[in-house]
Each structure stands twice: as structure tokens, then as C-alpha cells.
Amino acid sequence: MRRSWLARGSLLGIVAALVLPAVASADTLDAANNGVLPDSVAINSLWVIIAGCFVMFMQAGFAFLEIGFSRGKNAGTVIAKILTNFSIAAIMYWAIGFAFAFGNGKIIGDAGFFLRDYGDPQKAFAVMGLSDATIESKWFFQFVFCAVSLAIVWGTTLERIKFGVYVIYAVVFAGFIYPIASHWVFGGGWLQSNIGMQDFAGSTAVHMIGATGAFAVLLQLGARRGRYGPDGSPRAIPGHNMPLFGLGVLILWLGWFGFNPGSTLGALDGRFPEVILVTNLAAAAGVIGALTTSYVTTKNIDIGMAGNGAIGALVAITAPSGYVEAWAALPIGLIAGIIVPLGIAAIDKKIDDPVGALTAHGLCGVWGTIACGLFTAPKFAKYNAIGNPDGGLFYGGGFGQLIAQVVGLTIAFIFVFIMSYATFWAIKKTIGMRVSEEYEDAGLDISEHGMYGYPEQFIPKSEIA
Amino acid sequence: MRRSWLARGSLLGIVAALVLPAVASADTLDAANNGVLPDSVAINSLWVIIAGCFVMFMQAGFAFLEIGFSRGKNAGTVIAKILTNFSIAAIMYWAIGFAFAFGNGKIIGDAGFFLRDYGDPQKAFAVMGLSDATIESKWFFQFVFCAVSLAIVWGTTLERIKFGVYVIYAVVFAGFIYPIASHWVFGGGWLQSNIGMQDFAGSTAVHMIGATGAFAVLLQLGARRGRYGPDGSPRAIPGHNMPLFGLGVLILWLGWFGFNPGSTLGALDGRFPEVILVTNLAAAAGVIGALTTSYVTTKNIDIGMAGNGAIGALVAITAPSGYVEAWAALPIGLIAGIIVPLGIAAIDKKIDDPVGALTAHGLCGVWGTIACGLFTAPKFAKYNAIGNPDGGLFYGGGFGQLIAQVVGLTIAFIFVFIMSYATFWAIKKTIGMRVSEEYEDAGLDISEHGMYGYPEQFIPKSEIA
Amino acid sequence: MRRSWLARGSLLGIVAALVLPAVASADTLDAANNGVLPDSVAINSLWVIIAGCFVMFMQAGFAFLEIGFSRGKNAGTVIAKILTNFSIAAIMYWAIGFAFAFGNGKIIGDAGFFLRDYGDPQKAFAVMGLSDATIESKWFFQFVFCAVSLAIVWGTTLERIKFGVYVIYAVVFAGFIYPIASHWVFGGGWLQSNIGMQDFAGSTAVHMIGATGAFAVLLQLGARRGRYGPDGSPRAIPGHNMPLFGLGVLILWLGWFGFNPGSTLGALDGRFPEVILVTNLAAAAGVIGALTTSYVTTKNIDIGMAGNGAIGALVAITAPSGYVEAWAALPIGLIAGIIVPLGIAAIDKKIDDPVGALTAHGLCGVWGTIACGLFTAPKFAKYNAIGNPDGGLFYGGGFGQLIAQVVGLTIAFIFVFIMSYATFWAIKKTIGMRVSEEYEDAGLDISEHGMYGYPEQFIPKSEIA
Amino acid sequence: MKMVVAYIRSEVFEPIRTELLELGFPSLSVTEVKGSGRQRGVTGRYRGAELTDYLRPKLKVECVVGEPDVQVIVDTFLKHARTGAVGDGKLFVMPVEEAYRVRTGESGAVVLQAHRDAAAAAAG
Amino acid sequence: MKMVVAYIRSEVFEPIRTELLELGFPSLSVTEVKGSGRQRGVTGRYRGAELTDYLRPKLKVECVVGEPDVQVIVDTFLKHARTGAVGDGKLFVMPVEEAYRVRTGESGAVVLQAHRDAAAAAAG
Amino acid sequence: MKMVVAYIRSEVFEPIRTELLELGFPSLSVTEVKGSGRQRGVTGRYRGAELTDYLRPKLKVECVVGEPDVQVIVDTFLKHARTGAVGDGKLFVMPVEEAYRVRTGESGAVVLQAHRDAAAAAAG
Ligand SMILES: Nc1ncnc2c1ncn2[C@@H]1O[C@H](COP(=O)(O)OP(=O)(O)O)[C@@H](O)[C@H]1O
Ligand SMILES: Nc1ncnc2c1ncn2[C@@H]1O[C@H](COP(=O)(O)OP(=O)(O)O)[C@@H](O)[C@H]1O
Ligand SMILES: Nc1ncnc2c1ncn2[C@@H]1O[C@H](COP(=O)(O)OP(=O)(O)O)[C@@H](O)[C@H]1O
After folding, report:
1. Torsion B426-B429-B432-B437 (CA) sign
2. How far separated are the first and last CA of chain D, in Å rounded?
3. With contacts defined as CB-CB under 8 Å, which chain F residues touch E87?
């Protein structure tokens, strides 16, 4: 009784606080009203918002990548999931996530809850102070990053997880796990400012973190039925739709043109086109590396590997994209491309990762983070004012940056793994994690959503009106 | 004889007039040539054009939403329709629509036919004078709005309407109905300037108007065969492809990031990122509202409802997006999300709206328009200089704005309904509105377009080369 | 022995040269560091990059257009192809293509290999000096053009070509054929600067060139099995998925809003919205022209023709889009729309072009190029400072421009045809060009890629885990 | 034992299934087939070239019953499947020599249908 | 009455259908099936793991005719369906005891095919 | 000659196919069908309205063998197809009067299966 009254009281408090006018926030509107808003705000915000829109569209990319790799009986659920997750993330990240992630503080951010009452945004979110884009544009950009990271988590869980798991973990991930971890890595926290870890757009902060969640859930979820033979050998469960998979990959590739270059948080320094060039070269090398490797090892021009090669390379170039010169994109992307088929084959032997997310986002995220320690050019280290100003190993900067990278990603991995494992453990013990065998065989679309994603493929014509 | 001669004469006249050099239009080219075009023109135009491109892409969103909700035998026709409608709308809106919609005048605009001979665009289209974006960019932005509104009309008509109906109504709608109604609501007409109706990006002007056309046609078209049992009870006709439906929803969501924030018509006041934030929060709340409501009422995690919840909330936030603070997006979106499953269930009982457009664009459009009367913040009312500067009911502005909203949307509804009903009535009496039963059973793809949209699903392998 | 040593040596040399710091490139970073980078650089780069992103997304457009027009057994291979081609093109165009295309020189460009060591980019790539967008943004924009042209080549080759052919030709095309030919037409080469050929965004330089490659390969590849009856009469091989075809068309349409208006290479002159208007009107007229023509000739509302009508008109308006007034877009687009069904029907009689690329990109590219000779307005000819300042025939400029156009496109055609024919001839003689009949019957997905694109359509449930 | 094989329009199947269920014949199998007969084919057009599909979609229903029940099955089909237009389909009766229920391994006419409980289920 | 059941390659069906139509046998039904026999399966690969489909696509054709017509049907199939490679398929002849035309309720051999008008239609 | 017609769950087919192959019966045909029997239908929901699919997916296997081989075929099916739950399916044995191999034109029981080489292939 008492408790519920309290709960209601604090809810009321929150609502009341929200409705009261925000005080002391440096107001874009006032400046605009008084005609003193500099053009630079508009120009930088424009780029941040447009880049953010491209990144938002990556939700469709992940959805179709997953749909393509699912069987037809589990194709519709992906849509419900992506909408639900994106929505929960939006509200959580607005309420608390952004404040934790980008407010000032070594361990956790402290300002911007409900994106209000933060005073001067350039000071309240000092790590993003290099750009004068409006705080709403920065919020939007960082939110879509959070949503990408969350989308990555689910790559390992297709075709057998309960829908409720998405809902609960999304709240925790977008409200706490991602904000805190990303705060450490690129939100001004200790890994960035004390260790000097470099992660331009989130090989670790977004991709490796997402893959770590994906790993934590997979360990407790187990493989799809029939994925391993009685003798434990892996069996093929081919995805039902390579064209839609390809649509996903192409949308993600496009999205990365917002993801990496948008992490400049502005246009006025003219850096973003260089970041696009670097990003694109890496992806290209990744496709070539993955196709060649998989052709050599399996004598097949594997469509899925071509796509995952692009993704893996894009993940890998994400951290270095603002720190390296164009040429370095080729080895970074190529090696990521080589990692993809080898990593997938190795992981497939034991655990069931239907889309290859552990490899493409996990291993390649690690590789990309490490790559900064090798390839960072001094001029960019200096310009970004993060890490060793003498650059990575190959530029004569020694092992310093490399060590910072390894330390940083290890800590981020451990934190996210523990938090995620615990969350999933609690979910498993309470509502449960996995649908029944009967549901799994029938497919999630009909069992959890009441209707097939492709009704005409499953219900005879005579039964449909 | 005489008549055709006359017709030919006036046609010639139009052509001749078009070929003559445009006089007295303030010329961007001249300014550019003389190096006196201010940067602001480029910056504002950039945003308007890019936002317009996002909105244009909503055509794909509507197409795939409709395709997903159709049966496989009627999937291809949607492509032909969307291309035809968009094309007709482009030409009509260029020829006359834009002039009617955005030229000056309380009842109907008067300048800009064929987008020429309008003199100084800042004066000729005074209602858009707040931004110095080039007139072509404004035209493009307003045209894609018109095309969205037209696309909404057809949501109720899937799987049984004659293709010719699209063609005729598109001419009337893009040339007259939409321009006039939208002129009243946000083109400087009497509802806006005299009644003080607020509609930032078109909950009424675009969505409710489209849904009104959809209602008018549905009343005369009737339900799909088999949609209602012999006893009148509704039967399920499941759409054939939830992944493609989801693609449509995600594209629409992205498109709304052009739709609402682009309605600032410029970037330099730094307002557009706030509008994106508001828009996104509402959509998120809409998904959650719709899923929760439909889960409570049907025990299903309904994929279609999740998507329509997003759409409904996006429609609802469209009018208030430039007038409300971020927190208000939550109740506005949430309520729209709740409206969606309830509205669809209620409407389904009697009339056959295959995609739920009457609810998502109609009811939610009404709700969004009304919401301005409740949630408009004084500072934004003042900034936009439309409606009650004391804001909506919840900000202490009293019932004034609420009444203006209700009056405005009622008048818009009546006008569009009468015009549309009459147009469809005339079509029905002349060329007819509905394909034969035989055609309907076979599907529109093979009967109206000569080939199935998915030939391999319908023709045995032995018959295809 | 000797030779391989040499080869290795020069490879090392290239790598070494790349790793050495780039000297004497006017550095955006320095300028940014010193705070002297003008806003105009950011504004122009923004537009070029965003337009380039839209054009990059056209890869998805081409992929889905081709997928839609293929049979289901050949749907997956398109994804592998598009990723491979785009990747090869990226690396080749970065290494040498861009330098050949946009460095200075009448016959071939000479600077910017690996996009470095070019000195002052405004001087090194003088033809693009009109805009101060960063060189990386210009590279990106020109690269995605190259990738579009390459994608067009493969339209004629669906469902029967060996994957290896893509790889080899992509290297030659993106490294040599396209750069040289486009250099002549719009990279400052002799057709542009001496003949005065006008091609704003590449009706010839991108589309006709791509279609010429498509023609050269088709002549040596032959028709799909079963495409012509024993008596030589064409038989229908319907594409398997009109919705995905439509997705492709809509993405391409969107992409063209980057393609043509982005060819201004900047935003500050305010020209790009006019180019969008022109582009959109032409596409609209194209849809109407194609649908009307095909309805008149075949009594069908042909979905494929509607889409190809849009594409054909967009191709046609590409050259004139920066040279003509809005009204001219209507006849240009309309005639392209009429060309589409007639051209496809004529070509179908003899050679097997599954997507209609020879018509949509070839014939319509020719028409668009010629259209400049008819419709170019003097004011735009002057503004662009290319060709006859008195404009096209219909503006009283006489036949001069028309002749320049015909001469230019003929030379471009001959050059590309000979180069391509020879390349394909060499491929055919060495690795071969066409898969075995058995592979063709089984489909390329299973035979070349080891798995169907839609496994569930081909493998019974009992065989899939 | 006989197998009644019916080629019918798919839209008439539901009433047949329901009535058979009520009569105590819940067990049957259906296949989507294409049929040729008096009914005309459908001619499509793709990029100008004609493509005629001479085969129309039909539903094939197989129902194995004991000899004495054949007539009631046939009558039920005839009752519901007739629209009077060409394309209504045909019924054939074919001999079946032995039958086994997989679940139990039982054989003979007893396995064919499940009269009592099924009828009860339909009623209840 | 007999049902000729043929499992053939789908690409040989059209000439068979045409010739049967000309011979006065327009009525038949086809089903897309998968068959196993001498023909080898197809081995795919997905992410390294092999996946073999041992079944090849075939077309099953069912044609019920009167006893005297069986041979001409069989001969027509044999004539067109033979490529000489493994996988050409098989024909089986099965007894049919009764036949009904749904449209009219008629029964007996008279309902099986529609010799005259169909042949006429094919000719015309 | 007899045709063994089996309606079974699709997931039990692979072991049956393998064992039949080893036993020298490589030749059979399968069709995806939907069946009704004791097994309950599945009720979906679309926008509130219910939609019940009373038919469950089954695999129909047809295998024509000589009379003496019928029992071994039946036993193989019964052995692998039984899960003990409703929906396991049924087997029917139907008479076949004649058989032809298309590739060679041969007829008679000799064409039905390919005992030796197939069994050898399976072994090797
Ligand atoms: N002799 C037959 N053998 C096999 N199937 C047949 C035969 N006769 C009819 N059918 C099936 O029945 C369907 C309807 O037959 P049709 O001749 O069109 O109808 P009607 O009996 O009204 O003339 C055909 O499409 C075919 O599937
Ligand atoms: N005994 C049989 N029972 C059922 N179907 C059979 C039988 N024999 C052959 N078939 C069908 O015929 C097809 C072709 O048979 P196959 O043995 O490959 O050809 P061939 O006769 O040239 O050896 C098989 O795929 C199968 O569908
Ligand atoms: N008499 C029959 N005629 C045709 N098919 C049948 C018959 N009985 C069963 N079947 C097929 O076998 C399947 C399984 O039968 P069912 O009655 O569910 O199993 P059980 O034998 O365990 O009761 C059905 O779905 C149907 O396809």
C-alpha cells in the first residue's frame, strides 16, 4: 500500500517536473528569436541530424539482415521486435540514458535527464562541446547509436527467444548498460579521458558492447532446435531470403555514412568527407577479403559472407575512421573481411549465432579498436585530442595506444558482460527466456504474434477468405 | 468541332506561355551570378530539399505498407498505382496545385501557376516568407506533402478498385481538393489566419484530408469479397507479407523526420532538431500504446498494430510537433497508440479498411489536431505566430485554441468529404469503380496488369519458359 | 622469376608511397585547425556528400530492379554481385579512376592517384573548381557515379553469366573505361572543352556508357535458355517479384535527387532545387508516357513499363537537368517514356535484355543527350559555361549544340563499345563467360553460390533442419 | 476401403470439411494442384509477349473410407462443390487394399476415420 | 477406368499437354512434387555447413481415362518425356472404380474427358 | 505392384528415406500436403478477427513397389514415423496395374526400384 502510494507519488513528481518550464537551459529558441543564433549552429546541426537519420534507418538494415537470415516462419516477429526496441530505447535514452552517457563525470554522466534543466549545453555535455550543434541534434544522434547497439544484441537470439525478454532488457540496456559503458569509452568517462582510449564512432562503444550483450544472452539461451546434430556437428539452417538480407546490408552500408562521419558532430571542420572515404574503402576491402577467404576455404561465393564482410569491415573501421588516413582503411577492412568467415566458422562449431553478430560486431569490433593502436595518424590524434599524440605503432607512436585500446575494450567487455549476464539470468529465472519447443517448431510469428508473417505460405488458400 | 478547336487553342496557349521566358520572377540565378545570394538561402534550401527527399521516400513507405497488407495476388498493382499517382500529382501540383495552396488569398491562392511569373516569391507566397529557401525547394517540399496525402486516400481501396479511378481522382485531388483544403489550414487561408487553427505539419491538412478521401471512396466502393461472413461478421483477410509491411513502417518513420522538422522550412533557427525529438518520442509512445492495448484486448503481440501504432502516433504529433514541448509528445503519442487498435477494431466491424488508414490517418489526425488545443506551449505559439499566444488548455490558455482546432478540422473534413464524395460518385456513374468479381478473385495483378506480381507463386514451373 | 620479383617490387613501392605522408596537398585539416576554413566549404560539401549518399543508395535500387526482373532461382546472386562490384569500383576508382577522370588533361586526367599528392585540389581538378567542396566529398560523389554506371552494365546479363566476369570487367571499367570516357564528357576532356558537349549529370557519361558496356557483353553472351522459341519468337520470362522491382524503382527515383542536383557540386548558388524540380517533372512525364504507350500498344497497364518509364525519363533528363527550364522536362520525360515500351519491344525481338537496360539507359541516354541540343536555355548554358551560349535549337541557338551532342555521344559510344567488347572477348576466350546449361537451369544461386536465395521455395521442409 | 479423390475449387472446401466432420469423417488430406479441363486458361502478358497458363488452380482432396461410406462422401462433395459453371471438378473412387495408423500400428478399416470422438468434438 | 500417374520433368509437360488436348484428352491434373530415384541430389552449402537435397523437382500428372485410352496416353507421355538421362521419371497405371462430374452429377466413363468439344477448341 | 501412400510428419522423412535407400528402395515421390484428422487446427488472429487453419502440414510419400516388398516398406515407415502423438499419420496400400520407366520405355515390376546399384551407391 504504502509502497504503491510512494511509487505513485514519485511518478507524479516526475510528471510535474516535466510539465514545469525548463529553467536555465540555454535556449536555442531565444537565440533564434533575437536573431543571434550563428549560422554554424544550423550547419552543424544539419549534418548531425541528417547523419542521425541515416543511422536511424539502420534499424531497417538490421531488421532485414535478421529477416533474411531467419526462416520464413519467424520473419514477422523481427518487425515487432525492432519497433518495440527502438521505442523503448527512445524513451529510456531520453529519460536517463543520455544524461548518464554524456553528462560530465568520470564514471557516470550527471545532467540532461529528460533533456532539460542542464543549463548551458556546451558545458553540461562538455565532451561534445567541440561542436555547437543544438543539444537536441546531439541527443538524436547519440540515441540512434544506442538503438543500433541494442539491435545488435538480438542478432544471436533469433527464432527462439520470448518476446518479453526484448522488453525488459531494452529498458536496462538503454537506460543503464549502454549509457554507462559508452560514457566510459566516448562520453568523456575514464577510459577515454584517463586511459586515452580512442574510439571515434564506436567499434567498442556501440558494436562490441552490443555483441557482448548478444554473447551473454546466447550463453543462457542455447541453440535453435536442430542446429546441431545428435553428434554435436553443426547443421545448416539457411535463412529464407537472401534478397532481403542484401537489402539490410545495403541499408546498413548507407547508414554507416551517417554513423562514422556524423561522429564529427559537425560539418564546419570539413572532416566528415574524409571519414566517408575511409569508411567506404574499408567496407570495400571487407567484401573482397570475406569473399576471397570464403571462396578459398569453401569453394563458394557465399552471399552471406559478402554481406557480413561488408558489415565486419564497417564495424572495424568505426573506431579508427576519424584517426586514420585513407590507405589504412584497406588493411583494416581487409583483415576484418578475413576475420568474418573464419570467425563465423569457428563460432558456429559450438554456439548458434544465426546472423554472425558475434563475429561481425564482436570480433571485428575488437579488431577495429585495436587497429587504432596500430594505424592512428598523429595528426588526427592531435586534432581529436584523444590518446597518444604520436599516433599508433605503425606511425612510430610505440605501444602506448595499443595498450590503451586493449585495456579499454577489455574493461568495457567485462562490465557489459557482467551486467547483461545478470540481467538475462534474472529474466530467465522469472519469466523465462525461451519459447516452448512446440512454439519454436511452429515459428514465432504464429505462436507469439497470432499470425504468420507470410500467411499464404503456410495456410492453404481454401482456409483464407 | 468548335469545342475541340477551342480546347486545342487553349492548350497551345498554355504551351506558348510556358515557353516564353518567365518575367519578373526574382531570380536565384541572377543573384548567384552576381554573387549576392546569401548563404542562408543555401542552408535553408538544403534542409528543405533533404527533408523533402525523405518525405518523397514515404511513397515507398506507403507502397510497402499496402503491399504487406494485401494478398499476394494484388501486390504488384500497388507499384503501378504509386508511380502513377505520384506522377500525376507532380504535374498537377506544378501546374496549378501549388498556386492554389500557397499563393496569397483567404480562400484560394493566386500565384505560381507552373511555378512562374510570381514576382518576388517571398511576397507571392507570403505564408512561407519566414524562410528564404528557394521557391523550388519549397515547391518540392509542398508537393511531396500533396503526394503523401494522395497516397493515404488509397489505403482503404486495396484489392478491388479499378485502376482508372486512381488516375481521375489524382487529377482532381492534386489540382484542387488538396490545394484548397491545405491552403485553408496551413497555406495562409482563413482557417489558419482567421480562426487561428494550428497545424504545424499537417495532421489535418495532409493526413486527415487524405483519410477523408479514403472514407469517401470506401463508402461507395464497399468491402472486399469475403471480408464479411453471411451473418455480417468480419473475417480475417491477412496481408501476405509482414516483413514488407515493416519495411514500409520504417521508411515512413524515417520519412517523418523530414515531414515534421522540414515544416520549419529552414534550418537557421535551429528548431528542426527539437521537432525531430518530439516526433520520435511520440512515435515511440505510439508503438508502446498500441502494443499494450492490443495485447490487453486480444492477447496478441500484433505486428500490424505495432506498425500502425507508430504511424498513428506520427500522424498525431504532426500538427503539434512545432507547438509542443518534448514531454507532451508522450501523452500525444501514447493516446494515438491506444486509439489505433480500438479504432481499427471498431471500424472493422462495419467497413473494410484493409490497412487501417481511417484510424491511423483519420482518427489520429483528429486527435493530433485537437492535441494542439491542449498541449501547445505559449512560447511556440508566439514563435510561430499562429493561434492563441497563451497556448493550449494545459498551459492555461483556456479553450480558445481547442475550439479553433475543432472548428478547423470539421470544416476541412466537410469540404474534402463533399468534394471527394462527388468526384467518386461521378466516377462510379461513368467508368465504374470496382473490378468484376471474377477480376477480384483472380487478383488485380493478373487481371488489370496482365501478369502476377509474383508469377512463380501462381503459374506452375511447367508453364514458364 | 625476375618478373614476379619486379611485380613484388612495384607493389612494395606503391605501399610505401601510400604510407609516406602526403605532401603538398592543400590540407582541409590545417585550415580547420587554424580556423580559416570558410563556411562555404562545409555547406557545399554537405550537399555533395548527402547527394552522394542518395546516389550510393541507388545500388540498392539497381539490385532490386534486377532481382524483381529475375526468376527466384537467380535472386540471391544479385546481392553478391552488387556488393562485389561496388567494392571493386571503390578501390579502383580511388587508386586510379578518379585521377584519370578528373585530373587535368584533354585525353586523360593526371593527378589524384590514391587521392593524394595532388597539391591544390582546386587547381588539380580544375573542372570541379567551381565548387569549394572538399576533394574527398567530390571523390565520393564521382565514385558513386562510376558505381552506377557499372551497375547498369550488368542489367543485360542476368541469370546466365559467370560471376568471375563481374570481377574482371569491374577492374577494367572502374579503372579505365569509365574514367577515360567520363573524363572526355564531363571531366574536362576534349568532348566537353573542345566540342562543347553538354552533359550535366551523365545521360551519356554514366548511363549511355553503362548501357554500351551492357550491349557489348550481351552480344557475346547470348540470350537466356528458353527466351526465344524454336522459331525465334520471343517468349515471356516474367520476373519473379514486382514489389521488389518497385522498391528498386522508388529507390532509384530518390537516388536521382542526389544524382542530378548533386552535380551542381555545391549548394551555395541555390541551383540544386531547380534541378530537383526539373528531374521530378521529367520522371513524372516518363511514367505517364510509358503507361499510355504500353496501354495503347498492348492493352495492359504494365507495371514494369511504369517503372522503366520513370527510369528512362530520369536517364533522359540527366544531361539536360542543369541546362533546361522546368517546362522542357515534360517533353523530355514524356518522349523518354514513349521510347521505353517501343524500344523494349523492338530490342526484345532479337536480343535478350532482361531488365530493359539498353532502352532505359541506352536509348533514353541518347535521347537525353540530344535533348540538350534542343532545349538548353541560353541562361543556363552561360551559367555553366559549356557549349553554345545561345542555347539549343528551340531557343534559337541553331544546330550547333545539337551537332556537338551527337558527335560527343557517338565518340563516347564507339570508345566504350570497343574497349568493352575487347575486354569481354578476352574474358570469353580465357575463363569463359557463361555458366553451363545445367547451372543455368538450376539457377545461379545454388550453382554459383551454394545455396538458393529462397531456400524454402526450393528445398522441401523435410530436408531443412 | 476406397480413396475418394476429388478435384474441386478451393473455395468450396470449407463447407465440405465441416459437413464431413459432422458426419464423422474428420480425416482427409488436401493438396493444391493445377488442373486442365473444359475451363479456359488465363493469358497474361509480360513486356508484350503473351504467356498463357492453361492450368487452373484446384484443390485435390483425398479421403479414404470404408466401402459402405463411399456414397455419403461422394454425396457431400457433390452437394457443396457444384456451382454449375465449368471447372467444378471431378470425383474419382479408387480401391485401397490396406491401411495402417502410424501412431498405433493398427491396420484395417478401423483406422480410416474416427467417427465417434471426432463427431463429438465437432458437436462440442 | 484408369488413372495414369506420371512423374516427369516439368519442362516436358507442355508438349504432352498440347498433344493430349489434340487427341481429345484435355482433362488432367498436375502437382509439383519432389522425387528420389537414380538421379543424384544437390548439395548446397550455407556458412560452411553442407545441406544436401536428395529430392529433385518433378511434375506429377494425373489423367483418368477409360481403359481403351490408356495406351495412347502412355504412349504420348513416353514420346515426349524421354530425354534419355536419369531422372526422366515413371508412369503408373492405377484402377479407378467410379467417376463423377461435379458440375452435372453425372457418373461413369462419360465424364472423364471431353473428346469432341475440347478437340474442336484446340483445333479452332 | 502396389503404391504405398504415406501421410507423415515431414520431420520423420529423412530417416525413412535413408533406410529405404539402404534397403534398395531409392525411388519415391513426396508432396507437401495438408491434412485433417484427430490433430487440432491452429487458430490465428489478424486484427482481432480469428482465423483457424484446421489443416496441418503433412508430407505425402508415394512409393511404388512389387507386391513382395510392400511389407518391408510399410514396416520401415511405421518404425520411423511413430512419435505416439496424434498426427502421426496413416499409410495406405493401393493397387498399381502397370509401370513404365520413361527413360527406357521398359515396363513391368522391373522398373519400380533400382535395388542393386542404388543400394551399392548408398553403401559406397
Ligand atoms: N480425367 C481427369 N483426370 C484428372 N483430373 C481431371 C480429370 N477431369 C477433370 N479433372 C480435374 O478437374 C478439374 C475440373 O475439370 P473441368 O473439366 O474444368 O470441369 P467440368 O467438369 O466442369 O468440365 C480439372 O481442372 C482437373 O483438375
Ligand atoms: N517406384 C517409384 N515410386 C514413386 N515414384 C517414383 C518411383 N520411381 C520413380 N519415381 C519418380 O520418378 C522420378 C524419376 O525417377 P528416376 O529413378 O530418377 O529416373 P530413371 O527412371 O531415369 O532412373 C523420381 O524422382 C520419382 O519422383
Ligand atoms: N482417411 C484418411 N484419408 C486421407 N488422409 C488421411 C486419412 N486419415 C488420416 N489422413 C492423413 O493423416 C494425417 C494424420 O492423421 P491423424 O488422424 O491426425 O493422426 P492419428 O492417426 O494419430 O489420429 C492427417 O492429417 C491426414 O493428412
Report:
1. positive
2. 29
3. 103
HSE (CB half, 13 Å, CA atoms) of B246? Answer: 30
The greatest distance separating any two alpha carbons of chain B, rounded to the nearest whole angstrom, comes to: 74
Interval between CA D113 and ligand 3 midpoint (Å): 8
ipTM: 0.95
- For B127-138, the pLDDT digits (tens) are 999 999 999 999
Residue C110 CA to residue C197 CA, distance in Å, equals 21
Question: How distant is the Cα of C462 from the closest Cα of chain F, in angstroms?
Answer: 5
Q: Please state the length of chain F.
A: 124
**CB proximity list for C361: less than 8 A, separation 6 or greater:** C152, C155, C207, C208, C210, C211, C214, C311, C315
| Atom 25, ligand 2: residue with shortest CA distance | E35
Instruction: Give mean pLDDT, residues B423-427.
Output: 98
CA-based R_g, chain D, Å: 17
Tell me how far apart the terminal alpha carbons of chain C are, to the nearest angstrom: 51
CB atoms near residue C376 (< 10 Å): 34
> C302 and B78 in contact by Cβ < 8 A?
no
Bin D44: left if φ > 0, else alpha if -120 < ψ < 50, else beta.
beta
Q: How far is the CA of F93 from the centre of ligand 2 (A)?
A: 18
D64, F89: Cβ pair inside 8 Å? no
Distance (Å, whole) CA C368 – CA C361: 10
Cβ proximity of D99 and D107 under 8 Å: yes
Q: Does any CB of chain A come closer than 8 Å to the CB of residue F54?
A: yes
Residue/partner pairs of D16-21 with CB below 8 Å, 24 or more apart: D16/D61, D16/D76, D16/D77, D16/D80, D16/D81, D17/F36, D17/F54, D18/D122, D19/D76, D19/D79, D19/D80, D20/D63, D20/D73, D20/D76, D21/D118, D21/D119, D21/D122, D21/F36
Cα–Cα distance for residue pair C217/D30, rounded to 1 Å: 48
Beta bridge partners of D46: D49
pLDDT digits (tens, 9 = 90+) for A83-134: 999 999 999 999 999 999 999 999 999 999 999 999 999 999 999 999 999 9
Residue B126 CB: number of other CB atoms within 10 A?
14
The overall average pLDDT reported for chain D is 90
Q: Sort out which chain C residues have CB atoms less than 8 A from E35's CB and list them.
A: none
C237 burial type by CB count under 10 A (0-12 exposed, 13-18 middle, 19+ buried): buried
Cβ within 8 Å, pair E103-D84: yes
Nearest CA to ligand 3 atom 19: F87
D27 lines ligand 3 (CB under 6 A): yes
CB D90 near ligand 1, within 6 Å: yes
User: DSSP letters of A164-201?
Assistant: HHHHHHHHHIIIIIHHHHHHHHHSS-HHHHTS----SS
- Spatial separation of the C-alpha atoms in residues A312 and D122, rounded to whole Å: 56
Q: Is the CB of D36 under 6 A from ligand 1?
A: yes
Contacts of B238 in chain F (CB under 8 A): 44, 46, 51
What is d(CA B250, CA B255) in angstroms, rounded to the nearest whole number? 8
Buried b (16+ CB within 10 A) or exposed e, B384-398: bebbbbebbbbbebe
Neighbouring chains of D at 3+ CB pairs within 8 Å?
A: A, B, C, E, F
Predicted confidence at residue C10, as pLDDT, reads 59
Kindly calculate the radius of gyration of chain A based on its CA atoms and give it in whole angstroms.
22
Give the distance from CA B416 to its chain's centroid.
13
Distance F35 CA to ligand 3 centre (A): 6
Is-contact C132 C40, C-beta < 8 A? yes
Nearest by CB to D55, which of B442, B450, B460?
A: B460
| Minimum CA–CA partner of C464 in chain F | F11
- The rounded distance, in Å, linking the Cα atoms of F124 and F118 is 10
